[in-house]
Specification:
This protein is an alpha/beta fold. It contains 21 helices and 26 strands. The strands form 6 sheets. An 8-stranded mixed β-sheet has the order 13-20-19-15-16-17-18-14.
Length: 589
Amino acid sequence: MPDRNLVGGKAWSLARMTSLGLRVPPAFVVTTDGFRHFHEAGELTEGLRAQVLEGLADLEHSTGRQFGVGPTPLLLSVRSGAAISMPGMMDTVLNLGMTDEVEAALATESRDASFARDTHHRFLELFSHVVLGLDPHDHRADSPAAVRASVSTARPDVAWDPQGQLMASIEAVFKSWNSRRARRYRAHQGISDDLGTAVTVQAMVFGNLGEDSGTGVLFSRNPLDGSKQVYGEYLRRAQGEDVVSGRVTPQPLSDLADQNPALHSELLAAAQTLEQANREVQDVEFTVQSGQLYLLQSRTAKLAPQAALRSTIDLVEEGVLSIDAAVRRLTPSQARSLVAPRLATTNQSDPPVASGESACAGVGIGQVVDDPDQAISLAADGVAVILARPTTSPEDLGGMLAARAVVTDEGGSTSHAAVVSRALGLPCVVGCGAGSLAPHVGSIVTVDGATGTVYAGELPVHVPREDDSDDLRTVIAWARTLSPISITATAEGLDADDVVDLANTPGGIDPEQVAATIAGLPPTQAIRGGAAGSPEAVAAAIDAGVSRIVTDPVLPALLAAVHHTAPGQPDPTAPTSTNSPTDTKGQPR
């Protein structure tokens, strides 16, 4: 297998799926080394361009098609591929190589002029937005001719030159690494800006070809509650951007089962193969072209905290994961979300003001705003906000980070809003219908992500205890066996003189000062308080030789302790095979 840090997560997954015998469209990758050369030079160097053309020639040979030339033209997708998944944060360009001549050739080959025309319009729309920076709302409903005129005016040098399209698209994807939304996401998730991104160039397969074609997203287990139940969505006669954008609400995966039971069974078998091979719940993107299944990506699924907990325990019980690997996989932030406030009752006397599909559990209470910048501004002033949007895009990330919950009019459980909210542990309800919260902008609402409902006003909540959950008790017991420090919810057995309350200690609740404060304590003392359970305090206590931490909840602190003592553990999902079916480009010449 290739080095994930070199080829990126997307290309690595293509190589992995191919090695498992799954059907994947051929591809090549411009590596993170290529990204660094691009970043240093400010453009694609001649050496990089030459290697891209070599990869293109390989694709033409393997597919028997020619890029941008009839009668059997090859069209391409260009996608980002950082080593660590950043769902929805970076740019993608589809249907590259499309020209008037290619549209005519596709129409002749497929015997479907509407398919060829639709593919041409999709290319123009995405290329003009991602590569040329034109506002997609200005011409989304325009004819291909009108959009073509805009593209020709903006970049006549590449508009109808397929190779120019390819090079410009690779540059655009490289540049999206440093977009504001990507930087915000990395800062929030603790991902280094220095990693860079690879670019995967892949032969297109067409889910918009006909009624026996389509596209979808599949989770090998339920991403909301972690149950061992395949979960996903499917959209006939569509391409992947239609599903993830949220502009169209797809159908449940059962639609594919009704249409083609054998293909549905093949898809489920592939998902099971990938979960067993990678030892993690999988998020699989797929396309069906003329009744043939193709897998486009498989990655570790972004799960709601409850789903992460349940699926991790199940994987241990199924013999897939060790207890050690399972505990290290869970994060302190996930554990805190599991004891976050919940509605005191689900039987509200007043009907909800909006309802849709649950995308991430949790409760969010705040003022409804429909503008991401306003959400950022109000949150900075200490106002709790609920972000309501028709659907979200990567440009909305700042507003999502500022919000207590997200509600969308459109989209399903695999849309951008749903996937990113689960990654952030943010309560989210999607697909509520057009203008669902428009009458409530400026008002206070309560969002119940677990049930997919929104209520007027501030409803009472309760805070669950760790002891109330069998799953939490199980993981706490596991984590205690791995933690290098005793962490308890009470100070039982300790003399009052042996315990330092950080809340009453200068610097004890300041994340920037807590390490120095704890470092000055005698090593035999214990620390207590809510601040004592923060990752900074836990790390400082271990390093200072503190004997015990008293804090509630316990699990976030235990997980912080386990992670602090064993950073950089080997990836438990890393396979042993060294065979790579994916070409790599972008090494310096």
